[in-house]
Design goal:
Helix content is 31%, strand content 19%. It has 9 helices and 10 strands. A 6-stranded mixed sheet has the order 2-1-3-4-5-6. The longest helix has 18 residues. It is globular and about 55 Å long.
């Protein structure tokens, strides 16, 4: 869209992403990752990306204004999952939405982990009343039974792609689409969002009681929490394995952090 609509010279389009992001593991996506484990030995990398600190509106504005004619999109996670369930400062998403709208830049929200009820709303952007130009959904769409994902946008945006330009080897699976349609019907009732919000309050209240007792910080929204463990108590991996022995499945990340994401 940047080339055909905005008129960016060929090969000059730029996308802004946030530090500590996780958008996937393809070569292009890890090209703007700040995680050494994702990047090490996987180059050469794709150019055309700028990285700004997550949650820093001033840095976002400065980077947008550094190359306004070449910047075509801002790609963000409304809540950073792999980074440890990091919730942005209040007003950040709304601020980014306003900055991009003023500068004719697309706002792309990666809701692959946060979307479809996980945070207590259908999509995490709703916590700030934000509607992005493009929304990426996945995982929850297939309820982890089948692999399915979706890119949602307006006809104006998605209509730029012409038939045959892009595709997927396993795209259009009848089973995956049937499961996704059923999930959408379930989410429309609002029941799962309310359930996630209610149980999320309980989850965060109980986790908060552990602060100073081996837990240094608790973050998150809805049924999603990042817990920073006191390193003297063990690594995130060690704590995850101990919890698994007790029948609780969590995932470690970045050393001493575990992520809790119960079914909703």
């Amino acid at each position: 869209m940047g080339y055909r609509i905005k008129g960016v010279p060929d090969g000059r389009a730029r996308i802004i992403a946030a530090g500590n992001n996780f958008h996937g593991r393809t070569t292009t996506l890890i090209s703007f990752s700040t995680d050494p484990e994702a990047r090490a030995d996987h180059g050469p990398f794709t150019p055309g990306f700028s990285i700004v600190p997550y949650g820093d509106l001033a840095a976002m504005a400065a980077t947008l204004d550094a190359a306004p004619e070449e910047t075509v999109a801002v790609l963000l996670e409304p809540v950073q999952g792999e980074a440890g369930v990091v919730v942005p400062p209040p007003g950040y998403l709304a601020g980014v939405r306003e900055l991009t709208r003023e500068r004719n830049v697309l706002f792309i929200a990666d809701e692959i982990q946060s979307g479809l009820g996980r945070t207590g709303t259908t999509f995490a952007c709703e916590h700030e009343g934000v509607v992005p130009d493009v929304l990426c959904a996945g995982q929850g769409a297939g309820r982890r039974v089948v692999p399915v994902s979706a890119v949602v946008s307006s006809r104006e945006v998605l209509g730029v792609h012409r038939p045959g330009e892009h595709g997927s080897t396993f795209g259009g699976s009848p089973l995956a689409c049937a499961v996704a349609l059923e999930v959408i019907a379930m989410v429309r009732t609002g029941e799962f969002q309310r359930h996630s919000a209610t149980l999320g309050e309980l989850l965060h209240r109980e986790l908060g009681l552990l602060l100073g007792r081996g837990v240094q910080e608790v973050r998150g929204r809805g049924l999603w929490a990042g817990v920073d463990i006191d390193p003297s108590r063990g690594t995130g991996r060690q704590i995850s394995e101990r919890l698994m022995d007790r029948g609780v499945l969590v995932k470690d990340t970045h050393g001493a952090t575990i992520r809790i994401a119960p079914p909703w």
